[in-house]
Amino acid sequence: MKHQHINKIMLAGLLVIAFALPLVIRSATYLHILVLLFFYAYLTTSWNIVGGFAGVLPLGHAAFVGIGAYTSTILSLQYGVSPWLGMLVGGVLATIVGVIISLPTLKMRGAYFALATIAFAEGIRVMVENIDYIGPLKLNGPRGLQIPPLETGLASFMFASKEPYYYIILIMLLAVMLLTYLISRAKLGYYLMAGGEEPEAAMALGINVARAKLIAMAISSFLTALAGTFYAQFSLYIHPKSIISLDMSFEIAFIALIGGRGSIVGPLLGALLLRPVGDFCRIYFGDTLPGLHLVIFGLVLIFVMLYQPRGIQEPISRAYQALLNRLIPQPSLGR
Amino acid sequence: MLYVIEDMINGILMGSIYGLTAMGLTIIFGVLKVINFAHGSLLMVGMYAAYWAITLTGVHPYLALAIVIPVMFAFGYALQNIVIKPIFIAEKNVREPITVIIVTTGIWYILDNLTLLVFGPQYRSLTANPLQGQMFELGSMFVSAPKFYGFIIALVTAAAIHLFMQKTIMGRAIRATSMDREAASLMGINQYRIYNVAFGIGAATTGIAAVALIPFNNVFPTVGVLFDIKGFIIVVLGGLGSISGALLGGIIVGLIESVGPQFMTATWTEAIVYGLFLIVLFVKPSGLFGQKHDW
Amino acid sequence: MNVLSRLTLPAVALSLALGSFGLAQANTVKIGNIEPMSGPSATLGQQGKAAREMAVEEINAAGGIKSLGGMKLELIYADSESKPEKGVAEAERLINTEKVHVLTGCWNSAVTYPTTAVAERYGIPFIVPVSVADKITEQGFKNVFRIAAKDSWWTRDQFSFLKDMQDEFGTKVEKLAFVYENGDWGKGFATQWKKLAEENGYTVVLDEPYPSTATDLSPVVQKIRRANPDVLMLVSNAADAILLTNTIAEYKVKLKAIVASGGGHADPSFMKAVGKNAENLFDIVEWETDVNKPGAKEANDKFKAKNGYNLTGEAVDAYLAMYVLKDALERAGSLEPAKIREALAATNLTDGPGMIVGYDAVKFDASGQNENASPVIVQVADLGQGLERVTIWPKNARRAGYTPVFPANK
After folding, report:
1. B1, B117, B122, B138: best to mutate for the C interface, most C CBs within 10 A
2. For A225, which of A30, A75, A91, C307 could close a Cys bridge (C-beta 3.0–4.6 Å)?
3. Do B218 and C242 touch (CB under 8 A)?
4. What are phi and psi of A246, to 5 degrees?
5. C83 Cβ partners below 8 Å, 6+ apart?
6. The whole model's pTM is what?
7. What would the pLDDT profile of C139-153 be if each residue is shown by its tens digit?
8. Given 3.40.50.970, 2.40.370.10, 3.30.390.60, 3.40.50.2300, which CATH number is that of C152-285+375-397?
9. ipTM for the whole complex
10. Which of C210, C244, C248, C250 to mutate to test the interface with B (most CBs of B within 10 A)?
């Protein structure tokens, strides 16, 4: 059997497992943790399009999450617009904001770009915290917005159990992973990577790096905002300090860097490592030794970066390949 | 009019102290070319060191400098040497090692939360210190004495760092490394030792800022976070790597924070600071006073 | 390497993350407590924890829940870090995995809203010792019971206090300044204040939210000084309460009174950190050490011996919450959430170690609000043994022999 076939079978198997998981895991606790895990994997994969492929370090993606969440929530609370439609509106709005902010910032290098995105996201948070109303739209300032439980169902994007949320975010995650895979194979991906690694050389080859980065940023902010709506509908309460928080922006970047920046599965792997570390440490140490969970979280960050600066994706892939080679030795390709 | 003058004085004094808190950040960036996200935590450690030095010995707050500066230098030196250096070595060929940012963030989480574990969440402040509540009263105008002294400390520190960088062999080696690390290495300068020293100096400077703050500010485990983002903004406003730029950037932020609230609510001045920051980034990314390096 | 093999890898990690979870037969009453144990409100979480532990130790030592065969209470804590999403995740876990019978928490109103919604969905009773936003008991939830007064009552009492003080001391108050942290709590108070000021004919000379992460509050203090109000009303967290109090003293701002709203001003570290600058400050709290109730002094001494600081309003509400729960469990005689809920709804607790509060009985109205909860107002004063908080209002609760200093600017 060829490795390619095995890979296909494994992938199919994984998909089956992913979709069957809620049949096995009945506990809402673990489903909740998994939903948030996939939510972060989704955010990080969206982030990866610009942060991974284009080689810059955006540290303000929570702003787009916030734009998505606020847009769909305001539209549904005040105008009865379906959150699904609001999700798209939020995505478009985030794209516009993302492009506006990127036009000047993407020219910056490294640290400047990172700091600019932090300031941008913090600026958005401060504005939301200071604005109760934009015209007729009620933002409710620092108090946030609560979505009252309506009738549940797919149309209202509101469910009594965790399973539907699980499937929605899983499908969103798979779709965005497929999309990044396609991008990485397309010209855009090639331009981005070339521009990220050797911008001067890429430009010399006639690649419009700036344009490629801008497109990447537009796609990334659009996708990120969609998750904002998901989050709002999942938690039914949004407030600026938690949804436009630096913590969230940072966590997205950490997951990508720990998982493996610029790879397709890196974000998912990073989320699979970091989310449970954070959750379980908080659960076990949160009461007796407050703060210890964040110490451990910090240690994990440092150790992964010390020993696997390219992220955990690399050694895991290597180990998997080695395992395959050992289990099923490939016939050497005859001449 | 008098109001505006009074507010401007407070803005300049407080702003120069902000500039002092950001000076360590800009030194470390200038040499290592990385943003130190653990900067606020260094400030917090410095404040705890100062707090305990003053309360346990009962000395005048500013005498704590004699303890805090060497302690913070050693702390910064060790932190860079033990935790950050290995990453630089592993990522030798990368121009701006982003992994270092992650590591410094890890250090931030660890320091803040270890402090919470060891000292608890309490807020501490120096009561009954000779500086507390001291005010210069000029007619109906009030100027806070510890802020004024902080302003002096900030100026002296900036001048001292400048002199150190210009006049000493170590200072020149640091400057050489910050301009071109390969060339410096070729000239026989040990790049990593320079990094250690630069980080130590950055931490020590942050310790000085901590001592300047402690007569009128609280100490608690997450106090550094309050100064973190502010520090980033200040160093970019002034030009990353520039000492005098940090001071001026700090004063600009201080002025906005101090004069702004007379025209709007205090919460909006934050938004103005971010807005100005973004405008400066767009228009003049090297910072308002951006020379490459001015030490 | 192609993408398929990269996708294969999560399988291992996923299966590790699942683990197994069994169902244990309950032999204790499990109480899930969601509190900010780390992060910016950590001191409040720690106070709540210490108070709950003291109550539960006492209850267990006295033989547990008799109607349940002497069953003991067990406290399970979860750290919210003051973040709503963490609070929600912890509520899910406490309910589904720890199988708690009742939940309490969460101090931060912003965490309490979504968290009580989780409890409501599962039908698990949720006792809110302190989280003052009105909205918490106005969501139409059946399972939420709040011990503390809500913010419309706190603000109402602050204004009644102002009126009573003017009548008692013959000093007129006209101009008010409102300065508050720009959050759910501060905004909630300020909205009520503005309404009350209008109704009572006061002039509002300053209405100023400030970011509680501010590193310099002298610009805000300057605004207060220049607005020249008679009375300054504050809502502050601890760090900013300390900064504000010190800065107000430095700038020699003369006010007839400063009326604070608990929280930061009631934090045990506050008085230590500001010292004499706190003198004559008025603060509204749920409870004070000098309350005239049997057992209060003993409870406080015991608490102080263990934790090094006095019981605070927040802590007492948490302490009382455990006794309210014990009382309900005795009457329910069952661990079924619906039965516990019913018993809680029928609460009429008048005595016992928990009742060290100023009012006579804990009773919940239809919305789950403790209808008797009533804050008191204290003044910080030095009566020869260092600064302490002296209850002065309502007048019938005033500490014997103490005359409030009003106006407070001497």
Report:
1. B122
2. A91
3. yes
4. -60, -35
5. A242, A247, C39, C111
6. 0.89
7. 889 999 999 999 899
8. 3.40.50.2300
9. 0.89
10. C250
